[in-house]
Amino acid sequence: MEESRLAEVLGDRQLFLRVGFTPSGQLVWSLFERDGDRLSTRGHGGSRDGVNARELVLSAVRRHDEAVSEIWARLRLAQKWDHLKFLIKLPTPLIDKADWPAVRPLGDEAPRSARRKPPSITFGTDFSAASPGSRPKEPTPTSGGPSGQSGMRNDSTPGLSIANWTGRRLCCSKALRPAWPLDELYAALEGAEKKDLIIQTEDVLHGVPVAFLRNGGQFLFERVESARSVLSLSLLDWLGDLDRRAFRDTLDVPDKILSLSWFKGDDHAARRGAERLHEGHRRLSRQSPRAGIDRSPEWYSAADKPKGTHGCLARGLATHDVFRVVSVCGHGMSQLSGIELGDGIWNGSSLLEAADNGWIRRDACDLLGIEFMIQISCSIGRVQQTEEQDVEGFAVELAVNRARSVLAGLWPLHSENSPAFANEVVGHYLRLRAEAVRDAGAEFEGFCREDSSLRGNTRALTSWISHRLSDSCPRARAVAAARREWLAGIREGADLPGLNTAAAFELFGLG
Question: Is this structure's pTM higher than 0.85?
Answer without folding.
Answer: no
